Amino acid sequence: MPTIAEVLATAQLPGDEARRDAQLLLCRALEKPRTHLLAWPEAPVPENSLRRFEAWLQRRREGEPIAYILGEREFWSLTLNVTPATLIPRADTERLVEVALAQALAGDARILDLGTGSGAIALALASERPHWQITAVDVSEAALQVARSNGLRLALPQVRWLQGSWFEPVGAEQFHLIASNPPYIADDDPHLQAGDLPREPRAALVAADRGLEDLRLLVNASPAHLFAGGVLLLEHGYEQASAVRGMLEARGFGQVQSWHDLGGHERVSGGVWTEGEVTCP
After folding, report:
1. Domain coordinates in residue numbering, the chain
2. Per-residue model confidence as pLDDT tens digits over 231-247
3. Which of 175, 183, 233, 256 can pair with 271 through a Cys bridge, CB separation 3.0 to 4.6 Å?
4. Topology of the domain covering 90-273
């Protein structure tokens, strides 16, 4: 039988994280933690584990995201199940969670996560603020099924899951904070052909008007669903911060600002709804 070191040495994968991907796949095939690979490189790889590993390697070579092969992705110290019906949670979105948690909200604040996908934002917030009343919405029932199962598996049942387009499922309800990672990539953006993006649900990635259409919709519609002093937080593309701040200011939000991600890009923008009366956009 080949050893762990020999199997990893001959695994050929594309991309900058090829070795990490191979290690993750072999860990799953062996049903061992990554530390086992590092501590016991001379350990043999059983034939049944090697067959699984080689089958998964081929899927990865064909462009299938590692998260979809494994069926999971780590986000905010939570292990989330993911499928091709959901976006793959990314570290950039953890910045949105950090900003939301930094808001001075009551212990029983009402929170709305729009376009929840796998439930990453809602469940991260629920894990940190167990008394927040969190509602998560997605237009895709398939994505919501994944999110609901994540909530149950992680023992975070306080999240309410609703199916529908943006604010439609919540009627006239109001919230203290609205957070969203909406589609914000332009349909001709070359990044759509790179990395894992070609295999992820396009409807959750792409928006019209150079990626700004859904961001604008959320900015314009949010005041009707925010209490006075409520906060709107939006993740967006690294070159869209100025445009989003302009939308927020034009709509009447105060304390408008942007926050940087780990790469130094302005990734999240938001503001506080201070108007005493909701007006039509």
Report:
1. 4-62, 90-273
2. 999 999 999 999 999 99
3. 256
4. Rossmann fold (3.40.50)
